[in-house]
């Protein structure tokens, strides 16, 4: 993928969203990547209003009307990130959702975790105490829009260890830093 390095507007640290469908490992990978980079981690699931969480727990997919206030809150968290940067776990399934986040934090970069339907189902079935039921996986896969060529981001297959996935993401972030240094782009 192309694009300038994702850096915080108030500092030089990266603004990163680890995205993908439920059970892709967003939270685990984002937490690991944040630790590797030595920056803050935020889980967008924690920013959902109670009504959204209750709706999903009942197996009802969220509508865009449900998502917009949540995405605005996620975007604000990215915009207000500490100067060293932040790694956010957030589904960001549609281009319009990512555009909404970019509206608040234009330099955000996306790390899209991808996997086969079978692997995702297996992982979802093995999770305990998560508000997102396995029955919503198909809905999320139907909603998912891949990163487009003009979006700053990378796709990483989840059929690897968490450490290797985070390492691939970290290498991408480092390569974007190098590109910025070579071109002088901000």
TrEMBL record:
<dbReference type="GO" id="GO:0046316">
    <property type="term" value="F:gluconokinase activity"/>
</dbReference>
<dbReference type="InterPro" id="IPR006001">
    <property type="entry name" value="Therm_gnt_kin"/>
</dbReference>
<dbReference type="GO" id="GO:0005737">
    <property type="term" value="C:cytoplasm"/>
</dbReference>
<comment type="pathway">
    <text>Carbohydrate acid metabolism.</text>
</comment>
<dbReference type="GO" id="GO:0019521">
    <property type="term" value="P:D-gluconate metabolic process"/>
</dbReference>
<keyword id="KW-0311">Gluconate utilization</keyword>
<keyword id="KW-0418">Kinase</keyword>
<dbReference type="Pfam" id="PF13671">
    <property type="entry name" value="AAA_33"/>
</dbReference>
<keyword id="KW-0067">ATP-binding</keyword>
<keyword id="KW-0808">Transferase</keyword>
<protein>
    <recommendedName>
        <fullName>Gluconokinase</fullName>
        <ecNumber>2.7.1.12</ecNumber>
    </recommendedName>
</protein>
<dbReference type="GO" id="GO:0005524">
    <property type="term" value="F:ATP binding"/>
</dbReference>
<dbReference type="InterPro" id="IPR027417">
    <property type="entry name" value="P-loop_NTPase"/>
</dbReference>
<keyword id="KW-0547">Nucleotide-binding</keyword>
<comment type="similarity">
    <text>Belongs to the gluconokinase GntK/GntV family.</text>
</comment>
